[in-house]
Amino acid sequence: MNTIHYSMIIEWSDEDQIFVVSFPEWGTHTHTHGATYEEAAQNGQTVLADLIDLWQEQGRPLPEARVFVGV
């Protein structure tokens, strides 16, 4: 099985006083959060695994992963 790499963006929210995680390939309404950066990253990994499992169970094609192209 190939490993699939997806993006996670972790940003601090002054308004909520938490780190917010978004997933660009999965749409604008897919988020999680954490009180610390580490917690946010761990929660993000869990959400990504759950998204992949759910979409595969539903027979939906997974979104194409974004790839960083260096300068």
Description:
This protein has about 70 residues and is of the alpha+beta class. It has a domain at about 10-55. Helix content is about 30%, strand content about 20%. The protein contains 1 helix and 3 strands. It has one helix at about 35-55, and strands at about 10-15, 20, 30-35. A 3-stranded antiparallel beta sheet has the order 1-2-3, with helices on one face. β1 (about 10-15) and β2 form a beta hairpin. The longest helix is centred in the middle third of the chain and has 21 residues, at about 35-55. The radius of gyration is 13 Å and the shape is globular. The model has no long low-confidence stretch (mean pLDDT about 90).
Keywords:
30% helix; alpha+beta; 3 strands; 71 residues; 1 helix
Shape annotation: globular
Count of DSSP H/I helices? 1
Structural class: alpha+beta
For the largest sheet, list the strands in their spatial order. Answer: 1-2-3
Q: In oligomeric terms, what are we looking at? A: single chain
Largest sheet: 3 strands, antiparallel
Distance between the termini: 30 Å
**Rg calc:** 13 Å
Overall residue-averaged pLDDT value: 92
Order of helices and strands: EEEH
Strand content: 15-25%
Low confidence ranges: none
Q: How many beta strands in the DSSP annotation?
A: 3
- Approximate helicity band: 25-40%
Put the structure in a nutshell.
The chain is an alpha+beta fold and 71 residues long.
